[in-house]
Each structure stands twice: as C-alpha cells, then as structure tokens.
Specification:
86 residues; mainly alpha; 83% helix
Length: 86
C-alpha cells in the first residue's frame, strides 16, 4: 500500500475523525492539537491491533495517523473560530 493510500485510509478512519474533531473543538492552545493527534493515532493503532492479531506496530502508519488527526483537529478549530465570529 502506498503512502497516499495509507494517509487516505487514516484520514477517513471514524476513530481518528471523532477523536480529532472533538479534541480540536475543545482545544485552547496549539499544543493541545499535537497531544490530541498523538492520542487519536495511538488509540486507532490500539484498536486495529485488537482486531488484526497479526498486525505489528509500524511507525509510518502511526505518523500518518498523527497527521490525519491533526488535520481533523485543525478543521474543528477553524469551524469553532468561524462559529464564534458570526
């Protein structure tokens, strides 16, 4: 699977979307987005490890999960700011 395919799979993962969006909505500082993206990616890898018994930890898929979760958290922050402006 290519890197773009892994990124798209992580980007549309329901766990990453929910945790990233909720964390981004409730974040107040920039480092909250970093922490919530790490937690979302770790939680997603944990759930995939529970379902797929032969799955090992891969750094590349973890980092793409972090980037995808940070993207969803950033979208939630932008939506929150636009909502508060209006």
């Amino acid at each position: 699977m290519t890197l773009i395919g892994i990124f798209l799979a992580k980007l549309f993962s329901p766990v990453i979307i929910m945790v990233g969006a909720v964390g981004g909505w409730h974040s107040k500082h920039w480092w909250h987005i970093l922490v919530i993206s790490l937690v979302a990616a770790l939680f997603n890898e944990f759930l995939l490890g529970l379902i797929q018994f032969t799955r090992g930890f891969n750094v590349v898929t973890f980092i793409t999960g972090v980037v995808a979760a940070a993207l969803w958290a950033g979208v939630a922050v932008l939506v929150k700011r636009q909502r508060n402006k209006a």
